[in-house]
């Protein structure tokens, strides 16, 4: 498989617990929610900006992309936490949705992407 669990890897829950210690504790729920959403959008924009530079002849800086993805993960973790949920739960929900949409024996198909079942988010 492409992804292998290595010694020292952490679970998404472990990440979320460690990351949560750096969430400002002086914000009310609505401020925290807005902070998480705007931060997430901003960090995704930074990733896009790195890739955009490749169209101008710049090399794609793998390490910088990964660091920015870490910032994306931090804000996503906080956003999910605002809804009293965890990265593990959201990850499981997403895999269940993908397995229903693209059965394991078939994997991704353009047809299934274009012709989703009623109620498929």
Summarize this structure briefly:
With 121 residues, the chain is mainly alpha-helical. It has five helices and no strands. The longest helix has 25 residues, at 29-53.
What can you see in these coordinates?
5% of the residues are buried. With 121 residues, the protein is mainly alpha-helical. The protein is 62% helix and 0% strand. The two termini are 28 Å apart. It is built from 5 helices and no strands. Helix 2 packs antiparallel against helix 3.
Q: Specify the number of helices.
A: 5
Structural class: mainly alpha
Element string (H = helix, E = strand):
HHHHH
How many distinct beta strands? 0
Radius of gyration: 17 Å
- The span between the termini is 28 Å
The overall pLDDT average reads 92
Strand coverage percent: under 5%
Give unreliable regions as ranges: none
Helix content: 55-70%
Main sheet, how many strands, which sense, barrel? none
- Envelope shape: globular
Record keyword descriptors for this entry.
62% helix, 121 residues, single chain, globular, mainly alpha, 0% strand
List the helices and strands and how they pair.
Layout: H1 12-20, H2 29-53, H3 62-82, H4 87-101, H5 110-114
